[in-house]
Write a structure and sequence with these properties.
By secondary structure, the chain is α/β, with parallel strands linked by helices. It is built from twelve helices and eleven strands. It is globular and about 65 Å long.
Amino acid sequence: MLTERLRSILLCFVTLAFLLTGLWSPARAATKIALGHAVAATDPRHEAGLRFGKELERLTNGRYVVEVYPGGQLGNYNEQVQAIKVGTQDILIEDTNVLDRFDTIAGIDVYPFLFRDADHFFKVFNGAVGKDLYEEIRKKTGFLTLGAMFRGYRELTTKRPVTKVDDLKGMKIRVPPAKIFLETWKALGANPTPMVWGEVYLSLKQGVIDAQENPFPVIYNEKIYEVTKYLVLTHHATGVYTFIMNDTKFQSYPRDVQDAFRAAAKVGEEYYNQYVLKEQAQLLDELKKKGMEVLTPDLSPFRERVKALDDQFPEYKPWLARIRGL
């Protein structure tokens, strides 16, 4: 019968042998990845984040686990950008233009009438131009952007019909308080009026403003169809949601983990884009049912008018030429 001392010695040798041969290793805690966004869990961005997390966990065999925080639980999007910058948050799903405070090139996606349609958008961001643009943003801002999620178009809703660009003359249009939106509608002859969103519905109802512009989900969910009759399909701006990360932190991961992040972002991106393209058609039909009259003016004169803005944004010019040339 083995003595207690001999048993202990044999156990040490067996344990050492397993360690040396790699057949046994102590359990390692998974690395937790904090992913946040500023919208409700019902938004497709949330589901895109969940699918990203599931794929990353699968590709890394559970070494990395994503915790998704919706509805601004980690702060508003500006606060989350700052958290990414200092490294206390890992990922934010948001439009690239939230990075334009670090370099204006990050805001080019909302340049007016830049994308002819969704096919053009995907041609840009899935090709060499999009790759080069993201690389430029990375170098100039220190943020890595993964994936290109099509937000859908911003459209115009009005109290009187707009069938040509001259119909916009003097029209009071509520816009977000950003230079590019103000200058866009000035160039088109309108009277852009910055206004906080909470005042828009009543201002339209009372005639303080004549129009507003937003994507279909906002028009539908905020019941803008009750206070404007015409839906003018201007497609004047879109946007690109992406997975935003701190580039230095990303580069600290092993190469296989970096590849897993990129592949997981692709899964989230594909889900979001399929959802939004389907949603666009559904919401257009719903807005028609709500009584909105849909107008489709020739957009060529609109595009020509806003080209006057190019000189105001010289840093965009090389990119505008490449995007318009596709």
